[in-house]
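stage 2 :: seqdesign
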């Protein structure tokens, strides 16, 4: 492990939960000088416009960002100038060219009459206030969109701890709580209309921590800082929760220990019938954890078992114990043996073709957790509390698996990775790579401008990091616009083989410029890399463009910390480096006429096409 990675892991592990102001300041100082490449950090600039003093939140945000592999830098707009900053094409928010914009606007500041003078307003006045603010803010967002396509993270509005109408609020019209809830619904509608706007649910955070405890009146009156010091870490976490999903930093795999984690007791000592698992305490606490894990599985999280145990004994519990909620079909890989767990997780990552920073490791044993943090700091290691009754809550609080949306592909991800392990076993048994490819019986279905695939297409841009030529993120609304554009085609590929359906695994966005075909996006899920699918996809695109009179195929590679697997692809395919910009981006071209014979599909892949 590099010194930078060790410093990062050690510093973050030493933080309390939540950390004190002194701890945050110390961590910030220790981590500020880390080299991004050595520490495995992704630099990201955030532009912030707020209706209150946001400076204390920024410090928490920056330190929390390190735990998600992000080195954050910030531009903070002048106090309270959120509307001018959005509207003006020369504003600092636009000029800063941030990677992400955060809008922390409290409704209490934008529309104080809804909080301070609600009872003195009639229904018409309240409706007028709501409409005026909704229209003003919507127009400001649309104005900003004319200057920038940067993702926007917008905080929603908090319901008051003490409704102005007291107990009568639920029965009155207008109701203060319902008025604010309605504005939150309008905010969500605005986000969909403007595009690439994502809601940070501050109202839900206030509900969790306690609405009266969320705000420190003294801090507010003294410095216009509404968030109490002890909850600024949680506020920053709620922003990071969305930022992580937007940046493609969500985790994908949950690795679970067995003894005293999935069940009570040590299986080797008490046997299958002696473990604690059932309707009474503590067995019901372990059942609750399994139910939570199963719910994550159906949300698209890949489940792995990592246990020092006898493999056959563990499989027997999963297959035959009547109180087991998790069954073998829910587990993509059983890493059950007596080897060190970090070594096993590394092997699982290699088998499933996933980065270790996609993994979360859940274990009750502090020594095992310490070893995992030491040897694989990329893995998010969670040491369970001593009390099993808190296990399910601990897992529920993990927001690192969040995605911007859930597709059918997600819900089938666990099953697909289980089959991926079977493919790896089949590959190991094959005589050579070609016989492995032939034996897979691969079939590709390519769909162009099919709007039923919009959700998955957008998600691929948001979550695919390794084999991605630019890592440019797209929203569903942007994807629909591209599909409907006359000069652009959005092509997705679905791969099936002898083991089943891999789902939609690749995406290309091709823009036609005269006789030139320009790849705006070309990416492939890491699950299927190395099977020649990416070569077949690009050959098919080149053939289609040639048949339509195209003369050149062009693509631009922008290197990031994670997409190095893509770096040599264009060259290996036969494209020529035409230009290398000062920012390191590369423009590659391919002469379709002179190299037409090279546009061949590998003989072991069958292709079907469909168009919308």
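stage 2 :: out
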């Amino acid at each position: 492990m590099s010194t930078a990675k060790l410093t990062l892991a050690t510093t973050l592990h030493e933080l309390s939960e939540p950390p004190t102001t002194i701890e945050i300041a110390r961590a910030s100082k220790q981590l500020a000088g880390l080299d991004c490449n050595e520490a495995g950090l992704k630099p990201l600039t955030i532009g912030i416009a707020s209706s209150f003093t946001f400076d204390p939140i920024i410090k928490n945000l920056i330190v929390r960002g390190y735990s998600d592999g992000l080195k954050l830098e910030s531009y903070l707009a002048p106090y309270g100038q959120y509307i001018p900053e959005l509207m003006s094409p020369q504003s600092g928010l636009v000029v800063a060219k941030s990677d992400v914009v955060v809008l922390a606007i409290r409704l209490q500041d934008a529309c104080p009459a809804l909080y301070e003078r609600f009872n003195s307003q009639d229904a018409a006045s309240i409706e007028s206030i709501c409409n005026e603010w909704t229209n003003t803010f919507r127009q400001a967002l649309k104005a900003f969109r004319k200057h920038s396509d940067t993702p926007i993270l917008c905080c929603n509005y908090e319901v008051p701890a003490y409704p102005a109408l007291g107990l009568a609020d639920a029965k009155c019209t207008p109701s203060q709580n319902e008025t604010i809830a309605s504005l939150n619904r309008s905010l969500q509608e605005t986000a969909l209309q403007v595009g690439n706007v994502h809601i940070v649910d501050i109202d839900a955070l206030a509900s969790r921590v306690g609405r009266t405890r969320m705000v420190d009146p003294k801090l507010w009156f003294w410095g216009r800082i509404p968030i109490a010091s002890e909850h600024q870490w949680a506020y920053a976490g709620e922003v990071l929760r969305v930022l992580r999903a937007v940046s493609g930093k969500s985790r994908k795999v949950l690795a679970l220990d067995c003894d005293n984690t999935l069940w009570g007791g040590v299986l080797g000592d008490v046997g299958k019938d002696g473990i604690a698992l059932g309707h009474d305490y503590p067995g019901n606490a372990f059942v609750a954890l399994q139910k939570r894990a199963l719910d994550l599985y159906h949300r698209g999280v890949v489940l792995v078992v990592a246990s020092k145990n006898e493999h056959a004994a563990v499989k027997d519990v999963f297959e035959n114990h009547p109180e087991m909620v998790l069954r073998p079909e829910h587990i993509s890989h059983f890493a059950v043996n007596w080897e060190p767990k970090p070594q096993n997780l590394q092997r699982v990552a290699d088998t499933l073709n996933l980065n270790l920073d996609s993994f979360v490791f859940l274990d009750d044993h502090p020594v095992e957790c310490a070893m995992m943090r030491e040897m694989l700091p990329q893995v998010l290691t969670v040491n369970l509390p001593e009390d099993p009754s808190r296990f399910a809550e601990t897992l529920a609080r993990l927001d690192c698996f969040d995605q911007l949306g859930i597709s059918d592909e997600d819900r089938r991800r666990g099953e697909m990775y289980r089959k991926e392990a079977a493919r790896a076993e089949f590959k190991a048994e094959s005589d050579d790579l070609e016989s492995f490819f032939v034996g897979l019986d691969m079939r590709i279905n390519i769909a162009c401008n099919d709007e039923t695939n919009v959700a998955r297409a957008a998600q691929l841009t948001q979550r695919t990091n390794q084999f991605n030529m630019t890592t440019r993120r797209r929203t569903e609304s942007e994807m629909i616009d591209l599909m409907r554009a006359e000069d652009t085609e959005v092509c997705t590929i679905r791969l099936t083989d002898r083991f089943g359906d891999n789902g939609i695994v690749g995406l290309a966005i091709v823009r036609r410029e005269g006789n030139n075909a320009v790849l705006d996006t070309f990416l492939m899920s890491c699950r299927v890399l190395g099977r020649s699918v990416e070569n077949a996809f690009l050959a098919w695109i080149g053939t289609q463009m040639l048949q339509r009179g195209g003369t050149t195929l062009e693509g631009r590679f922008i290197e990031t910390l994670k997409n190095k697997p893509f770096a040599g692809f264009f060259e290996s395919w036969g494209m020529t480096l035409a230009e290398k910009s000062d920012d390191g981006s590369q423009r590659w071209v391919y002469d379709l006429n002179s190299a037409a014979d090279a546009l061949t599909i590998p003989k072991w892949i069958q292709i079907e096409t469909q168009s919308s």
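stage 3 :: structure notes
- The mean pLDDT is 91.
- The radius of gyration is 26 Å.
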